[in-house]
Amino acid sequence: MINRVLVAVDGSENSMRAVELAAEVTTKFEAEMSIIHVVSKIKIPEELEKFAKVEKIEESPEYLMLDEIGHKILDKAESVAKQKGIRKIRKIIRQGDPANEIIKFAKENQIDSVFLGSRGLSEIKSLLFGSVSNKVCNLASTNCVTVR
Questions:
Q1: In this structure, what is the dihedral angle of CA atoms 74, 63, 113, 80, given to the nearest 10 degrees?
Q2: Do 91 and 78 meet the contact criterion of CB atoms below 8 Å apart?
Q3: How many CB atoms lie within 10 A of CB 65?
Q4: Whether 19 contacts 80, CB under 8 Å
Q5: How far apart are CA 69 and CA 63, in angstroms?
Q6: Rounded to the nearest 5°, which phi and psi values hold at 64?
Q7: Predicted confidence pLDDT, tens digits, the chain (148 residues)
Q8: Distinct helix (H) and strand (E) counts, the chain
Q9: Which one, 67, 120, 130, 135, has the greatest CB density within 10 A?
Q10: Are 140 and 114 in contact (CB under 8 A)?
């Protein structure tokens, strides 16, 4: 039985196809759907950090940028899921290693099935170090579906 579905999105076409398939499964099993977006830490230019301090912006520029991008990706994924009939969707943004954060969230929230795209936006990195989907599918303690 599938009660909780997690979809990992990065804005790529494959991750949006994963949302579509996950929405179909969610509907069939009357399950709960969560959509997660994880961003690796990035280095913000020093000039932007100085600007934030001068303007007394409390949140770090890094946080503001990641939050904005993450919300746009999650909103797009939510729109795709709603077009498939899903009405209640939990959206999550995390920062860190994408595979580790997806696995951690799935375990913490007793997710039954994880859906993700086969190759996302970091194809060159994945060729060298292995893809996020490969790592999640091999290390997660739940069912995983990789979508192309």
A1: 0
A2: yes
A3: 15
A4: yes
A5: 10
A6: -60, -45
A7: 899 999 999 999 999 999 999 999 999 999 999 999 998 766 667 777 777 778 776 666 666 777 788 999 999 999 999 999 999 999 999 988 999 999 999 999 999 999 999 865 555 544 444 589 999 999 999 999 999 8
A8: 6, 5
A9: 120
A10: yes
Decide: helix, strand or coil at residue 59.
Answer: coil
**If you search the block for the tokens 């409390």, which residue do you land on?**
58
d(CA 35, CA 78): 8
Whole-prediction pTM: 0.82
Q: How far is CA 55 from CA 45, 48, 59, 61, 64, in A?
A: 16, 10, 11, 11, 14
- Amino acid (1-letter code) at residue 86: I
Side chain identity at residue 1, one-letter code: M
φ, ψ of residue 104 to 5 degrees: the values are: -60, -45
Question: What is the CATH number that goes with domain 4-147?
Answer: 3.40.50.620
Residue type at 28?
K
Residue carrying structure tokens 């904005």? 68
* Angle between helix 13-29 and helix 61-83 axes, rounded to 10 deg: 50
